[in-house]
Design brief:
Elements: H1 2-25, E1 42-50, E2 58-63, E3 67-72, E4 80-85, H2 88-100, H3 103-108, E5 122-130, E6 133-138, H4 148-169
Antiparallel strand pairs: 1-2, 1-5, 2-3, 3-4, 5-6
């Protein structure tokens, strides 16, 4: 019995410490870590999390004038950071969608499915500021799927990746 305890206790401690280590180095992005902005109008901050953490998740920030910053996290080198602007049509569409969407209602809604991040899928966090009001939304907590705004915002992760990361790898 004593020999079994000598094996089990160190094994448990090593596993526990390894779990803590992995948690802290995973670098999970948190939308709350982004400083508040003084921009009036519309500002959108978006992050991915979940299955992307092994290779690097991405995030972006779009402001009302259409300027955006897209960051593709890298686990092997420096993060890739890209700055550009949306077209006038794209930013007009986003502003219109953000003003037409009842963000307060969506913020109070509940996601009833299985969170993709729990099974190595990609999930999304958003912080949206519209005329001084701030909304924090998460695809694993809020029902975002039926909203044209969030479908468009999720699309931008793919679009920015194709424009900036994949083109630079060619």
């Amino acid at each position: 019995m004593k020999g079994l305890l000598i094996i089990l206790i160190p094994t448990f401690l090593i596993g526990f410490l390894a779990g803590i280590f992995v948690y802290f180095i995973s670098g999970a992005s948190d939308v709350d870590e982004v400083p508040e902005s003084e921009i009036e109008g519309v500002e959108i901050i978006a992050n991915t999390y979940g299955g992307c953490e092994l290779f690097g998740c991405s995030s972006y920030r779009i402001v009302e004038d259409g300027d955006y910053i897209y960051i593709k996290e890298s686990k092997t080198s420096d993060d890739d950071r890209f700055e550009d602007s949306l077209s006038d049509n794209q930013i007009d569409e986003l502003i219109k969608l953000s003003e037409e969407t009842d963000l307060e209602e969506i913020e109070e809604s509940y996601y009833e499915g299985d969170c993709p991040a729990y099974v190595d899928g990609i999930s999304y966090e958003f912080k949206i500021m519209v005329d001084g009001e701030s909304y924090k939304l998460d695809s694993c907590e809020n029902d975002l799927a039926s909203s044209d705004l969030f479908n468009k915002l999720i699309d931008y992760f793919r679009i920015f990746y194709l424009i900036h990361v994949e083109d630079n790898d060619s």
